[in-house]
Design goal:
The complex is a heterodimer of chains A (about 400) and B (about 220). Chain A has about 400 residues and is an alpha+beta fold. Helix content of chain A is about 60%, strand content about 15%. The chains are: A alpha+beta (about 400), B alpha/beta (about 220). The complex binds adenosine-5'-triphosphate and magnesium ion. The site of magnesium ion has 3 residues of chain B, from helix 1.
């Protein structure tokens, strides 16, 4: 027999009470872990989105939802191809790569696929107007030095954007996202029939962790034909020189293309970043709440337990346990509650995040192990604080109550 | 020298309306090896006297010394130590810990003096055997009869080899046959192990087991 065994046996003796004492702290920890886990993954998703977009300015149809750009709904609005020419013919400074895209969600063999038509960089560059304006990358790079703070402000690195540029793409070729390649079991040089037309798989793209993994890229002209949307595109992605953006490139573009929505990616992700910020604040508020509610509920539980155990505490004092022993019994019990509450809260919160994350925030969510330790520490600290007063009062129980209460 | 020396001991309970003299100027000496029986009407202060001697109730005035240890002015820690090492308690209501088996209940006082688990177990088994409970050691209190529970309580009181056992109506909840057995056990403990016993009882027969009898009335010794 020792104090640990005594505490353990008592806990086992009154299991059902244990559960009610733990509810508040378990739920509290679960909510915080859930919110934080989803938020962290949402932040990672934002970063990945930025990383993989390949452009920092988006030209979208007026009234198009930003989400349309990602989800590519069947009836999402479009803009005419001619807008590309307009940008090219204008003598705007600071437009580097520019890529018109047409995106639609389609089905291949019953599997959902995002089909995106792209114009290979070589074809745009080969347009006479592009060349006469002399807007070649090198000159732009000189003015877009990454050391300039403006570049950092928008959060992208030129090299990363560069690698996204697809130089050549044959009219009968397509590029396949890594996830789609798995679901449709495709590899390089396979044949695939999209909307009745046969394409050759030129390449399987490396995994990016974004919606691009579910995409098939094909030549813009071919996609327009397939979807019967000749001369229409869903968006123009532009890689603008960052200094140019701060010098008013967006406004210049708006002047040329009045009936479009022109936005930078930092604006797009701003809402998501804002939501994440709100979630972080929310979980902080929850933390404060569970410190109070969880602490009080544990304290209340311990106090009820002390009252129920008056006789037993009296007995222990009678056979020679000092007050400190009673304190230790109750604090040990509080620690066990805290550990148990922290573990249960973490598991519950993580399960909720993993299952709800994809539905609520459209992102994949994985357990975050460091939160296990945070949950444990927070729950234990709350339990100890909550049980200090009841433990102190228990030390004051006069043992003679033992004899008069038969 | 006497084991317990009690001088002018008083305990006064004050409430709004009246003051109760639970113990009123009691002086008494108990020698080592005595078997003192305490009788008196209900409310006369018998329990209060035992608890005060055990250091569980602070007296209002007077002195109590156990050998050279002054109980009335000792700290909580010292008093806990005194009870743990020198005192065994047996109560009318048994006061066993409900979620511990007979064996575990008897082991608790040893765990308070930090003895090793294996030693705790062998000692506890031996004492339980002595009170005739060797075949019930893994039973919880609720699985034991009243007489068996009281014997577990006696085993627990004996486990630390106390100098003195305070027993508050140990046979109050038992039928006459069982009472006789328990009283015999006390008598054996007293004569074989030279453990001093102070036993409160209502029954005149039980009172005859002692070599000294004191009687309380309204907190006074008569
Ligand atoms: N905590 C207390 N507060 C106020 N009065 C008390 C308290 N404890 C005991 N008393 C009073 O002190 C007196 C002595 O009580 P005590 O329990 O010692 O009597 P007793 O002789 O053991 O009685 P019984 O034979 O019924 O057990 C009683 O009048 C009782 O009401
Ligand atoms: Mg009494």
């Amino acid at each position: 027999m020792n104090i640990f065994k005594l505490v353990f046996l008592e806990l086992m003796h009154r299991k059902s009470q244990l559960i009610s004492g733990l509810v508040a702290i378990v739920l509290g920890i679960a909510v915080i872990v859930g919110i934080k886990t989803v938020t962290i993954h949402s932040e990672i998703a934002v970063a990945k989105k930025l990383d993989n977009l390949g452009a920092n300015i988006l030209v979208l149809p007026q009234g198009a939802n930003i989400d349309d750009y990602y989800t590519a709904d069947i009836d999402a609005p479009t803009i005419p191809m001619e807008y590309v020419e307009r940008i090219l013919t204008s003598s705007l400074q600071g437009v580097d790569n520019l890529s018109p895209k047409l995106t639609r969600r389609i089905e291949i063999n019953g599997k959902k696929v995002v089909l995106t038509g792209i114009m290979p960089a070589s074809e745009i560059a080969s347009k006479p107007i592009w060349q006469t304006n002399g807007l070649q990358g090198n000159e732009l790079k000189a003015s877009c030095s990454p050391t300039k703070t403006e570049n950092q402000d928008n959060g992208y690195k030129d090299e990363k954007l560069q690698r996204k540029v697809i130089d050549t793409l044959d009219i009968n070729d397509c590029l396949v996202g890594s996830q789609i390649a798995i679901t449709l079991s495709l590899k390089e040089n396979d044949k695939i029939t999209i909307e009745g037309k046969e394409f050759n798989v030129d390449k399987v793209l490396p995994e990016t962790g974004t919606i691009d993994d579910d995409r098939i890229f094909a030549h813009l002209t071919a996609v327009q034909e397939l979807l019967k949307l000749e001369g229409q595109i869903s968006a123009i992605e532009i890689m603008g020189c960052c200094n140019a953006i701060s010098d008013g490139l967006l406004n210049d573009l708006r002047n040329i293309l009045p009936d479009t929505r022109i936005t930078t990616i930092s604006q797009i992700v701003a809402t998501q970043i804002e939501t994440n910020g709100m979630m972080n604040r929310l979980s902080f508020v929850f933390l404060i709440i569970i410190i109070f509610v969880g602490g009080i509920s544990i304290g209340n539980y311990i106090w009820a337990n002390v009252n129920e155990r008056r006789k037993e505490i009296g007995t222990l004092r009678l056979i020679g346990a000092p007050k400190s022993y009673i304190y230790r019994i109750l604090l040990l019990k509080a620690i066990v509650l805290g550990v148990f509450g922290g573990i249960c809260g973490y598991i519950l919160g993580t399960i909720a995040a993993v299952y709800l994350g994809p539905q609520v925030a459209q992102i994949e969510v994985f357990p975050i192990t460091i939160y296990f330790w945070y949950s444990l520490i927070i729950a234990v600290v709350i339990s100890i604080i909550g049980s200090l007063i009841p433990a102190y009062l228990a030390g004051k129980i006069e043992p003679y109550s033992n004899m008069q209460e038969v | 020298m006497s084991l317990l020396v009690i001088e002018n001991l008083s305990k006064i309970y004050k409430s709004k309306k009246k003051t109760i003299h639970a113990l009123d100027n009691i002086s008494l000496e108990v020698e080592k090896g005595d078997f003192v029986t305490i009788t008196g009407p209900s409310g006369s202060g018998k329990t209060t006297l035992l608890l005060t001697l055990a250091g569980m109730i602070k007296p209002s005035s007077g002195k109590i010394s156990f050998n050279d240890f002054h109980i009335e002015k000792a700290s909580d820690r010292r008093l806990a130590g005194y009870r743990k090492k020198n005192v065994g308690f047996v109560m009318q209501s048994f006061a066993l810990i409900p979620y511990l088996t007979a064996l575990q209940n008897v082991m608790v006082p040893l765990s308070l003096v930090n003895s090793r688990s294996s030693i705790q177990k062998s000692k506890a088994k031996k004492v339980l055997e002595m009170v005739g409970l060797e075949d019930r050691i893994y039973h919880l209190p609720k699985e034991l009869s009243a007489g068996q529970q009281q014997r577990v309580a006696i085993a627990r009181a004996l486990i630390n080899n106390p100098s003195v056992i305070f027993a508050d109506e140990p046979t109050g909840n038992l039928d006459p046959a069982l009472s006789g057995e328990i009283l015999k056990t006390f008598k054996e403990i007293n004569s074989n192990q030279k453990i001093t016993i102070l036993m409160v009882t209502h029954s005149p027969q039980a009172a005859e087991y002692g070599n000294k009898n004191i009687r309380l009335c309204d907190g006074k010794l008569i």
